[in-house]
């Protein structure tokens, strides 16, 4: 979106004002839509995208202050820049508009030069805000982006019941030494696409990617009913996808990819860690450590999916799970019960 | 008697919106304003303070747009005063209507130049 050619909505109950404002804006190269009162304006805003709203205050049915209040409540619309244009008397009304989030206030009759400058500034701010949102979307998961959008950013976390999952590609380091770098990046991209689909398809969130490994959380930042079951289902989906991938024609003659997955459930602390400048959404706790250990353990036992007792109980008899007995794991004082999820079945 | 329309303000409007467009805008105003004056009277009769203030507010805003300074000022007084004693309000409205007639005539002349 450039400064020229923005989509603007003009709301004014007075026809002369509406036409004049539209004329000024069209002369500046913008596409203008008109609305006669606040109610109509909100309807339009909810049905088509606009870059900026020019809002009158004194209007029948729904006045400008009420529109600002509605916009503030609406998550889709609350970032829409609003310039109030009014001939309203009294500073308190202007103050109220600014408090309710209006970018600016222009007194009527509106000076076209001032109007142009204010619109340019508002659109530029919106462009930067959109860019920032896009960055958040690209580098964080949709859930984290929504969580940030809804509650803002704050370091610190809260305790939740969740299931952690770790997964990586077996023998990846050796593989990466034998294949050209482009092929490895290509492989990783495909692998991540498949894994993301499997995990988010079951309500999980991938929150870390390191090399060929990933960490996913089920049950945070948004609560998830049956997080353990969802994680196990996702793991089975992941295995199936890898199997299909290995059978693709362009993988012919290449060594098949194998993955190992560790899953554990329990109390974790989920939240943002890092600094005010650079932070990441993560989960810490026993279950997270255990999931990582279980994933490492898949290599020793030759099972693709290992899980803990809590997740095993959560899954119940919905899926075939084999007890492997208690196993001493690195970083664990006591040996832990380990279960192997047998692939090839879905629930 | 001074002109009902401030020539400098009117010239500004023509310069920024375009003279052809201002012709259209005058027509719109001449169509809309009688309704606003009627609304002002009706709101006064109904004792509806919101509608009364809003109608005066619109007339003020439009008056100022065209440089109808006296019309804008009188409408502003009504907007700020709000509903008051009926006879005084009706007198104010009558004066406003007279000023509107003067402004409308001046705008017609400017339009038809």
CATH topology of the largest domain in chain A: Alpha-Beta Plaits
If you average the pLDDT of chain A, what whole number results? 87
The structural class of chain A is: alpha/beta
Stretches of chain B where pLDDT falls below 50 for ≥5 residues?
A: none
Chain-averaged pLDDT of chain B: 95
Biggest sheet record of chain A: 8 strands, mixed
The CATH architecture assignment of chain B turns out to be Up-down Bundle
> Most extensive interface: pair and counts?
A-B, 19 and 23 residues
Helicity of chain B, in percent? Answer: over 70%
The gross shape of chain A turns out to be elongated
Secondary-structure element order of chain A, as H and E? EHEHEHEHEHHEHHEEHEEHEHEE
Instruction: Name the CATH class of chain B.
Output: Mainly Alpha
Topology at a glance:
The complex is a heterodimer of chains A (347) and B (113).
Chain A: E1 7-11, H1 15-27, E2 31-35, H2 38-47, E3 52-55, H3 64-73, E4 82-86, H4 91-99, E5 104-107, H5 112-139, H6 142-151, E6 156-169, H7 172-178, H8 181-201, E7 205-210, E8 213-218, H9 227-246, E9 259-274, E10 279-284, H10 286-301, E11 305-307, H11 309-315, E12 321-327, E13 336-341
Parallel strand pairs in A: 1-2, 1-3, 3-4, 4-5, 9-11
Antiparallel strand pairs in A: 6-8, 6-9, 7-8, 9-10, 11-13, 12-13
Helix pairs in contact in A: 2-3, 8-9
Chain B: H1 7-17, H2 19-46, H3 49-66, H4 69-81, H5 86-111
Helix pairs in contact in B: 1-2, 2-3, 2-5, 3-4, 4-5
Structural descriptors:
heterodimer, A: 347 residues, alpha/beta, Rossmann fold, Alpha-Beta Plaits, 44% helix, B: 113 residues, mainly alpha
Describe this structure in words.
The complex is a heterodimer of chains A (about 350) and B (about 110). Chain A has about 350 residues and is an alpha/beta fold. Chain A has 2 domains: about 5-140, Rossmann fold (3-Layer(aba) Sandwich); about 150-340, Alpha-Beta Plaits, CATH 3.30.70. Helix content of chain A is about 45%, strand content about 25%. Chain A is built from 11 helices and 13 strands. In chain A, the strands form 2 sheets. In chain A, strands 6, 7, 8, 9, 10, 11, 12 and 13 form an 8-stranded mixed beta sheet that branches. In chain A, strands 2-1-3-4-5 form a 5-stranded parallel beta sheet, with helices on both faces. In chain A, β1, α1 (about 15-25) and β2 (about 30-35) form a beta-alpha-beta unit. In chain A, α2 packs parallel to α3 and α8 (about 180-200) runs antiparallel to α9. Chain A is elongated. The longest helix of chain B has 28 residues, at about 20-45. In chain B, α2 (about 20-45) runs antiparallel to α5 (about 85-110). With about 110 residues, chain B is mainly α. Chain B has one domain (about 5-110): Up-down Bundle (Four Helix Bundle (Hemerythrin (Met), subunit A)). Chain B is about 85% helix and about 0% strand. The mean pLDDT of chain B is about 95. The two termini of chain B are about 20 Å apart. At the A-B interface, α1 of A face α1, α2, α3 and α4 of B.
